[in-house]
Design goal:
Strands 1-2 form a two-stranded antiparallel ribbon. About 13% of the residues have low confidence. Strand 1 and strand 2 form a beta hairpin. The relative contact order is 0.04. The protein is an all-alpha fold and 428 residues long.
Length: 428
Amino acid sequence: MVNAADKALTDATIRQYEDWKYACQQMRTEDMVKFVNVPDCEEGYPLFKSELPPGEQLVQHAIHPPPKPKPETRVTLAFGNFMYSKLVRLLKDKDIVVRQKSVTWAVELLSVPSSRVRCLAAGFLPILAKMVVEKDMFIRQELALCFKYASASDTTWDDLCTLGCINFLVDMVADSNIILRGNALSALNDAALSDEVRKELVSNGKTLTFILKCINKEPDRTCMILEFDLLSKCVAGLNYDQMALTELLKVNAVPTALEISSFTFLDLKEAAVRFLCLLCFDVVGKEQAVKLNAVDIMIPYLYHTEPRIQAFGVAALMSITINIDAKHAMFNSKVPTPSAKKILIAQGVPVLLPMLDLNDDLLCLYILQLLINTAEHPKARAALKGGITILRDMIKVCASALLKRCSRQAIQQLQFTSRPFKNLALVR
């Protein structure tokens, strides 16, 4: 027989269990996406219903079955969900060792898309922005990685500018530590996918000049490539940024790109030639490139065995040869071919027609544009007359509407008979 004391204890236990069960049901709703970060509170994000294994419920009945191991995924989720609020406080700890471990932990969490959203919602970014005053090199290196992974979320782009993280990363580029420079440049490259970040970099009129000066004295090849890529992103923008072009062309960006393009490393050569192509979108850039004999330097790229180097070399020539003097240079240029016979001399024009290969649509498009630009020169048109048959055959078999249109435009240009350029006004 159950006495009154035991019955009262049982009733209290059941009531406590029912209250706990109701609270758990209320917490596990899809609408619960944030938590209140109260000091000294270990609450984190609860597991969503979608995160629970199928058929797995925390509460079944009052008498629990014997303990059994939980799946690894379930343990990992529970561990991570209850650590966000704690990590927010540990990042502000007075102990430098704790801060080092915490910022490393933050890098790991921000690098995973599933936990990045929770980290940002927990308020990581403002706290990381306040840590820019840290003097410890390891923390600074990890901070740059935090900003890199945080910029993978487009919701952080405005915050990165508002909190001053972009300026902090630019300051890191001037540091003597190679790892820190590499992390900062990698973070800036990822963030520069945003219009807001590119505007922040271009608007003050000094940052791009600073990055270009860093290229000229950069000893590390990887950092140099990242610097070229960052400048290319700022110049290109959604179309191309005239403010960025104007700033760079005033500080000898074209000579720098031409000098670096002569290096033997293919990835560095690719970055430099891509940057040169973008600089030559501007009239001033074309004029500077022609004066520096850029056409003579780029023509050997037509023979390069690496397809991507060949494509960027053709793209640079395509951009430069809009200039009238460049058309003359394209026809008159004489550089040695990369063959065993050093006495052979190659010109730019005869190489174009054999390169019209539909197996590479992008390269074929660049060659067509280069051919159209070059064919404005009378002597070049005479040398390329035989290409009309090739272009007509391309129109028949090509599946790309863009390539067909460019082929028709090239045929029209090759059949042009009036006097071009300065004498055109005298033609009646």
